[in-house]
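User: I'm preparing a small set of examples for a lab meeting where we compare how different chains pack in three dimensions. I only have the primary sequence for this one, and I'd like the structure in token form so I can line it up with the others. Please keep the answer compact; I'll paste it straight into my notes.
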Amino acid sequence: MANKKEGICYLVGAGPGDPGLLTLRGRELLGRADVVVYDNLVNPELLAFAPERAEMIYAGKKSGDHSMPQDQINRLLVAKTKAGHCVVRLKGGDPFVFARGAEEALELARAGLRFEAVPGISSAIAGPAAAGIPVTMRTINTALTIFSGHRDPAEEDAAEFYAQTGAAPGTKVMLMGMEHLGGITEAMMRGGLPAQTPAAVIRQATRGDQQTVTGPVADISARARESGLAAPAVVIFGDVVALAPDLLAAMARPLAGRRLVVTRSRAQASKLSAALRDLGADVLEMPLIKREPPPDLREFAELVQDAHTYEWLVFTSANGVDVFFEIFDKLYDDAREIGGTRFAAVGAATAQRLKERHYHVDLTAENFHAASLAETFRQQTGVENVKMLVVRPAETSGELASALSKMGAIVDEAIAYRTVPETDDRTRARERLVSEGADLVVFTSASTVRNFHALKLPLPSGVKFASIGPVTTRTLEECGACPAIEAARHDVPGLVEAIQRYFAR
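Assistant: Understood. Below is the structure token output for the 505-residue chain.
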């Protein structure tokens, strides 16, 4: 009888909110998880790194609203690990900084189970940094105190603790204290913290929708309340707060404060999302399409196997390049087996994918349309009796193959994949779009438009649409929407440039 698989639980710090601040180790472990148990403070975008097969369990706790008590979470981690699973316990910030990771670790250890603590970036450090506030500076302070504000300052021992904290030297950073902020600051001032000490409240630290309010300790609570700031937030007290205006001026990014929805497939979204996040946007990834095998995988593989018999290989999408060479690499162990065939591509992204595989692209459609590629063939080279293989998805028409055939070419079509609607919304992007709103929904293909329209989501007012090019724009208009943005260059860099230019106006 085979030995039962030994389980292990990873207590992973998810970082402060920005998906880019998850550690490489954390992302690697999410990629192999059988079970993911995640907190309320975890950015849902991180759940996309887990396999589709992984079991997702929400164990979030908000003030007065605990979806799962801590002892039940402990028992759950023990049970799933005992069952032989790879369990990722995903916790906001660092698992051992006010995150009850120590309790979970002890429970696992007492049960004789394997676990590993994977440190994360705490919002106590990252939140101030993202707001232009260094928690230490040699010429200003030489100490840092991080404390929890979850205890009610009306309790005598809690009030004494806050007073002692106020008297401590250097910078002080408080987590989980928004509910009692007014009482806590009063206790800190009674303990000796000067009323005019600069303070800041930072909500949704490091995320694109981050908000910051500053002011003296004496009225920081009132200012936060007037601004509508609520948990989750980090509060920082100390002279280093006064550095923020100068530092923030140099940290400003053009899309800061804008929420954008990216509708590309999960596999393709990262490049566009990363470019928008680099510009400061809060990005919701809401994949509406995914790639599936073609209707006849055997037929496609046979065409790939015979690729060397064609004078031209014509690709209509970057996905087609990927799928073609996934099969080719399984059939052949030498790239030279493709022979002396030449390559043509529809669009710069498709051409670039071929170049990344070190193939020279002999012909590229100038305006990103299949019809344009046929015209380019007609103008630049003869195709009479030329044997060609057109690699395309199932959803697109045979317009290109038909046009080439009319020009005298001998054309075969290889259906590389199907594009189907994405049903997995583990990151709750659809719910968040409806409840939190967005400035812009970004479409990179006609199929994403059609699938978005089919959802019939009740969109908040003010939401605009961006299109990567004319075909996508035409589909939007057919669905009754007029895009505010259409990229002049119909690729991801062109789309990002158009979005940046739109908001700059």
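A couple of notes for your slides: Residues 294-416 form a domain with the Rossmann fold fold (CATH 3.40.50.10090). The longest helix spans residues 318-331.

User: Perfect, thanks.
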